[in-house]
Amino acid sequence: MGFTLRNVPLLSRIGADRADTLRTDIDAAIAGWSDALVLRVDRRNQVLIAGDSVVLGRATSLGDAPPEHAVFLGRLGDGRHVWAIRAALEAPEDPSVEASVLDLRRAGSIFDDASAQLVATATALLNWHDSAGFSPVDGSPTTSIKAGWARLNPVTGHEEFPRIDPAIICLVHDGHDRAVLARQGVWPDRMFSILAGFVEAGESFESCVVREIAEEVGLDVTDVQYLGSQPWPFPRSLMVGFHALGDPEQPFAFNDGEIAEAQWFTRAEVREALEHGDWSSTSSSRLLLPGSISIAREIIESWAAQD
Description:
The protein has 307 residues and is α+β, with helices and mostly antiparallel strands. 21% of the residues lie in helices and 28% in strands. The longest helix has 19 residues, at 113-131. InterPro entries: NAD-cap_RNA_hydrolase_NudC, NADH_PPase-like_N, NudC-like_C, NUDIX_hydrolase-like_dom_sf, NUDIX_hydrolase_CS, NUDIX_hydrolase_dom.
């Protein structure tokens, strides 16, 4: 039985204009700096949150022009530019604003769409800059260009762009009432999710699904169908979601050592687990499932909602 996602995954929603043409328009970037906003992300990828929005400060507090290490995130609905920097967090300028320190994993589910997009983009870009200070070609120090969306080797002129590591994530089901959920060895006993793995060089997404499922739990899957995708900036992944058919009569085989346990669960069992919340729940349920920030949760919920 096929199914589709009921909702766009949280981190995949469009909340702000990425305004990519402004990355190379230096005059426009400088012109917009006077009323631009800045997002501070600390070394632990934490930000300040007030209500359902990320806290943004005045960009001019950093100077009269964007500093070299700032990255351009886009433009809000009112036209103001938003930049991000890696820096210690600062209290909101308005003392009446009550703010909390959280990261995307813990706060993604409460963010409005614009905040989720800004924080996900900032986290991915800043993580890349942290590890891209030297050219992979000749080891020369690189400099940030294009408003933080590329780095330049001043010796060779070679440009490097943000690295993205694609990974598949797949719900294996029997076409009827059962689906496979698995637990990695490093997870607590009751935490289960669907299967995932990184795409290899020269491999399609669909081929990766077949290979990864066979490697992780020993099942031969067919009818691989695309569901949706979600950025996962921890540190720089793109999760591409699928579902596929598997045979419950085929025994599990944990070939790569990553998966410690896998089981076929009925739709009723999954629905009950979803009612108990997620991995952070204190419930005594024998099955705990991923939180709402992950596309894994949306895939599981969408399958469980089928009649």
